[in-house]
């Protein structure tokens, strides 16, 4: 088989890395498919579960994309484009899932309007919702007006999330164009390549989307308590946001020669793919936090 030929022609260290990554991917895919089957077998809350299934599919998509990139570095770019597109869709699913759990957009806005005072246990957001007003921490409060709970806050959060989805798709398309002209330079932080510029744009966009999600969670966490919103929020953040920042950090360190180990020299720009393959603990957490919607 093709994959076996790849391994047989490589060093023992690379073969070990490939087999360990393959085992982790297999575990991730099997557990994810098991969870999806559980949801489909107890499909009693379709408005919530259809978006949750879309989120669960992130795990096999990320795992398989990373493993295929390890098998064939020439296909890595196309695999990452697919992952980026699905990441944008997953962010939409996460937002719609939370709104569905609140009873839809109308009920969500009505709930926000009913909150005259909302306290938060997060130090960053203490006293941020007094009198139904969302105040931003410094220095954002010097640049952005305060949000009023209700349609104003809901639209601000929605736009904050949607802008990342749109920019993610645009940057993926631009990456394809730059790759075609040979100026994309994946993982290279040099001024003549497009990669660092796209990374900066996505970094700001993603940070703002994450901030909006934190604000939305802080306002609705008590209402969403039955579905364990903090656990789901942390799982989603770790899969989407932390893996992206992890990739940027790996590319940055690699470009400056920070990785000197033998395995790092073999994998080179595919280090991030190998790490993602091994990060199957997220699947176990995902199963734990998603069981509340699986009916017996």
Automatic annotation (TrEMBL):
Pfam families per UniProt: Solute_trans_a
Protein encoded by which gene: LOC104215319
GO cellular component entries: membrane
Entry protein name: Transmembrane protein 184 homolog DDB_G0279555 isoform X3
Main location: membrane
Alphabetized UniProt keyword annotations: Membrane, Transmembrane, Transmembrane helix
Highest taxon above the source species: Eukaryota
SMART domains cross-referenced by the UniProt entry: Solute_trans_a
Localization per Swiss-Prot or TrEMBL: Membrane
Record membrane topology: Multi-pass membrane protein
InterPro entries per UniProt: Ostalpha/TMEM184C (IPR005178)
Signal peptide: none
Residue spans crossing the bilayer: 16-37, 161-185, 197-219, 239-259
